[in-house]
Amino acid sequence: MQLRRQARILALQALYELDTTSHQAGDVIAYRLEDTPLPVEGETYLRQLISGVLQHVANLDGLIQHFAPAWPVSQIAVVDRNILRLALFELTGATGTPPKVAINEAVDLAKIFGSDNSPRFVNGVLGSALGVHDHIELRPATPAADTIKD
User: What is this structure's pTM?
Assistant: First the structure.
C-alpha cells in the first residue's frame, strides 16, 4: 500500500477517535503508530495531516457547512466529516498533494470506511469546493493548537 495512503488511513482513524472521545492527540497517534508502524516519511505526513486538521478544524467545518448547507456539520456522519476535514486540509496545498489526488483519495476512504452514500457525498462536497476555488485557503490557525509531537 502506498505510504501516503497508509498515513491518510491512520490519520482518519485517529481523527475519528479524537472526534468521538476525549483522548489526547499525542496518545492517539502513538497508539496508531504502535499498531501500524510507518517509516519516518509516513509518520511525518501522518502528523502533518492530523496537526493541520486539528489546527484548522473550525475553518474546515465552516467550509463543510458552506459546501454542504443542507447538513449541519454535527449531523454529518463522523467518518464522512473527518474525511472531508482531511481532504479539505489537503486541498489547501499545505501537503503538496495535487487536488485531484486529494479528492480521489478522499472518495476511496469513503468507499472503505463510509456508508454506501459516503463516496458520492464526499465527492460532491469536495467537487463543489474546488469548483469555486482552485485551492482552499484557511484563516490562520488558533494559537492554542500546536504541532503534535511525541
Answer: 0.89
